[in-house]
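Please go through the sequence line and token line underneath and see whether the fold suits the sequence. See right below:
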Amino acid sequence: MSELVSAEAFEQKAKRRLEPSTYSFYAGGAGAETTLEDNLAAFRRWYLRPRVLADVGQVTTTIQVLATEVALPVLLAPVAFQSLAQPQGELAAARAAAAAGTIYCLPTISGVSPGECAQAAPPGQCWFQLYWSRDRGFTRELLERVAEAGFSALLLTVDLPVFGHRDRERRSGFAFPAGVPLPNVSPELLPLGSGHGHMVDPTLTWRDLEWLQETARLPLVLKGAEGAGARRPRRPDRTGLHLGARGRG
């Protein structure tokens, strides 16, 4: 692992080790990946502007994120089906985040329940990413399990009312794996291969966030609320924003 000195090196290593269709799922973006390419190019245009003679004898990367202290301003984002890359999947990612002193975000599309994930990380160092389905009863029960497991925040994906086409996945023949348990998905949507297009309730509006906050009773972060959508006046108090930059929808 010592030769992997950059994110790009890890990506190339993964490309060599994974099945091509699995790699296309992890690395690909929506459509022809125009947004994905633009986002990567935009990120490369950011530069660090150093300050000089600023007394850096004692420095720290520790910050507060929603009242949780983390060792560095980098969190592990939700990635579905992590067990395709490594048998321990989401549990290994949660342990790695804990070892680094930061937060892990468990995805809805996961073979691991909130309770199982919580056993792999310290209390309060896990968030849960929610695809909010039409099944309100199941959603309520899921949120109860998230709260009981000690998760410290809820990350609601808001930029995916329908699943878009992903050209790279279609070319590689990727299909959702059979036999992987999905404890965070409503049984009405299983098997996922036929139901993933209805994973999210397309009728959701800003008003529905009030029900979600009352039910979850956790800090709420909106994932994918960019541009004008993030400035809507009805956004509830105590709501954070997570800007999506992968063009994955």
Summary: Residues 136-148 form the longest helix (13 residues).
